[in-house]
Amino acid sequence: METKLAADIDEHIALFQEVRQSLLGEVVAVGRQLWTCMERGNKILVAGNGGSAADAQHFAAELVGRYMMERRALPAIALTTDTSILTAVGNDYGYDQVFSRQVEGLGKAGDVFIGISTSGNSENLVRALESAKALGVTTVALVGKSGGKMKDLADIVLLVPSQNTPRIQEAQQWIWHTWCSLIDQFHG
């Protein structure tokens, strides 16, 4: 068991070294873009499924609440939280539209939509990216593996270079935590 755990840690460290080399500059650029979006009076919409839904909610909570420093509440909405909308849209239109319908109702040009997925192939996120683009909303795909369908749709793609779902999620969490840290710094 300890050998497996040590291998997991080694894999985590190796991935983060690769993320540092290949994605750090883009992570910073997106963080700056998110701050600019909110400073202009626009908002961040974020969604994902399963563990990525939890990440979407956590990220939005850090912005509306606070991350590491006291500051004003920032406009961010996790599209994963309203069970009435999710179940109504899922029932009436299909689960593949639970996020796109919300983007259509809440999104406007100048906003940013972030789709979080380990595979990049979640149909409800693909449709949300399409709806966001149609509205002039900037789209960000935070994905792993090959990037899936989302890679070809998003304006900005942050592709975590791993095939291992837990490692992808660990890196994705670091990325959006880093965005929170940058936003705190830009705010200060």
Automatic annotation (TrEMBL):
Binding site for Zn(2+): H58, E62, Q169, H177
SIS domain residues: 34-188
Molecular function, one GO term: D-sedoheptulose 7-phosphate isomerase activity
Stored InterPro entries: GmhA/DiaA, Phosphoheptose_Isoase, SIS_dom, SIS_dom_sf, SIS_GmhA/DiaA_subfam
Residues the entry annotates as binding substrate: N49, G50, G51, E62, N91, D92, S117, T118, S119, S122, Q169
Pfam family name, one: SIS_2
GO biological process: carbohydrate metabolic process; D-glycero-D-manno-heptose 7-phosphate biosynthetic process
NCBIfam families, sorted: gmhA
Cited function: Catalyzes the isomerization of sedoheptulose 7-phosphate in D-glycero-D-manno-heptose 7-phosphate.
Family to which the UniProt record says this protein belongs: Belongs to the SIS family. GmhA subfamily.
Name the UniProt record assigns to this protein: Phosphoheptose isomerase
Naturally occurring in which organism (per UniProt): Sulfidibacter corallicola
